[in-house]
Amino acid sequence: MAQSSTNIYKRLESLEKHLAEEHPDNPVLAKAVHSFRKLDRVAQDIGLLDRNESYATHVTWWPMIAVLGTFSAGKSTFINSYLDMHLQRTGNQAVDDKFTVICYSSDNEVKTLPGIALDADPRFPFYQISRSIEEISEAGPQRIDAYIQLKTCPSEKIRGKILIDSPGFDADSQRNSTLRLTQHIIDLSDLVLVFFDARHPEPGAMKDTLAYLVSGTINRADSNKFLYILNQMDVTAKEDNPEEVVSAWQRSLAQAGLFAGKFYRIYNPEAAAPIEDPLIRERYETKREEDMAEINTRMQQIEVERSYRIAGMLEQTAETISNQIIHKLTSMLQKWKKRVILFDSIVFGTLLILSGVAFWLTDSWNLLKTFAENIMAYDTSSLIGLGVIVVVMAYIHFTIRRKVADNMAEKLPGKFGHDHTACKQYTQAFLKSTAGFRPMCFQKPAGWNGSNQNILAEVRSEANDYIQSLNDQFTNPSGRKVEVAVAAEEKPATESVTTPETRVE
Ligand SMILES: Nc1nc2c(ncn2[C@@H]2O[C@H](COP(=O)(O)OP(=O)(O)O)[C@@H](O)[C@H]2O)c(=O)[nH]1
Ligand SMILES: [Mg+2]
């Protein structure tokens, strides 16, 4: 994906413009793009980023909701009803084996585009997704089409948001890449709805799915973004045993390690069989409406959560560079220096001893003396000889520098595991700091000068200003938006526990 640096800046400019237009009342996002560009310049000086790269492409600017869950749990039905249009195919058969990225378009028709279209779109979340698909599939970018498609639809509900529908999730038969893609989508999303099916509250055959989906969501800093939804509750109406079904569901979640979280029970009235008994029906409807209202509120709030997320990401990136990254690079540089000095001493020491021995054996010390005298007398051929010796020594020294640096860089992937991005950044920055033209006596990594340190401090204070202004905007105690702010604050999962038991009337 080679792009010129002017191209990346054009993209950022258009992103900034778009955000300013889309959110005239929330200038924080457009300003954040500007701060990201400052961060980019510092990172480029250090060598963490190429000239055509930007941290702005590492975040999702669009608020994203992912709908995941077991096969046939009613995910697509839920999405259709949310959008108020029949966009996704539904049914008990496996109807879709791809992720569908759904976004708004004002054209009055639905367009389905192949996954490869995600690359061409100037908006960033797709870029991020497609890049990771490229990483997971050895076959190259064309394979994106096998995993993902893009649908544009005119529903106002989705304007300014991105919704992702996922294929039936059955880990047993799922290819590794789908699992990894799911993980990636979870990481990018501001809200993740995890669907289960009341017809199989304890899905024995789904053990792996549960384990994968659920255990991956616990102990995360952002565990607040996961909503666990038991769908198709209408099927429990016949026997009127919702509590039993819910506790069976909770047991299987607990087996996967999930004891606390946001739990909901809903059904889709259009897909459901009618509930005959009017009393039962009323009870079911009330419960469903309560839970749907909460889910809908969360789906609306994600725009705010996204703004906090981006401001947080900005501050975190600046912080990571000034503390962790520089610290690590500095200690790598020290290690490198020590090794270069060691190898220099071994090689030049050996050469010195060998030549000493040669002079001694041939008893030709006087040659050395003559050579020195000739140099003092500016004898041309002796000066050329000295020049050759210096060049050879320099060549040996710079070869050692390069080889030691390459050798240390080669070992980095082993230390970073799957974190390809971090590995690439450290490798680039380390190679830049150890480049031949940089004197070895520099203690600090390349690009780590006073002015760049100030810029990072500036970016961090800007990020805090953004968070402050988001707080001012959304935590106004007399304003209507109080609820939003409460949800946007990061709360530990245990504080926001709503167990199904407490919700069952
Ligand atoms: N009884 C009942 N059936 C539902 C409900 N939601 C979806 N369905 C049906 O369950 C089947 C699977 O739904 P679908 O949305 O395709 O599931 P997905 O695989 O999770 O996308 C379809 O036949 C739907 O009509 C519900 O709340 N109650
Ligand atoms: Mg589906």
TrEMBL record:
GO terms for cellular component: membrane. Its main location: membrane. One of its GO terms (molecular function) is GTPase activity. GO terms for biological process: mitochondrial fusion. It is found in: Membrane. Pfam families: Dynamin_N. The chain crosses the membrane at residues 340-361, 381-398. Residues 486-505 are annotated as: Disordered. Residues 65-210 form the Dynamin N-terminal domain. InterPro entries: Dynamin_N (IPR045063), Mitofusin_fam (IPR027094), P-loop_NTPase (IPR027417). Keywords: GTP-binding, Hydrolase, Membrane, Nucleotide-binding, Transmembrane, Transmembrane helix. Residues 495-505 have a biased composition (Polar residues). This is Dynamin family protein. It comes from Nitrosomonas communis.
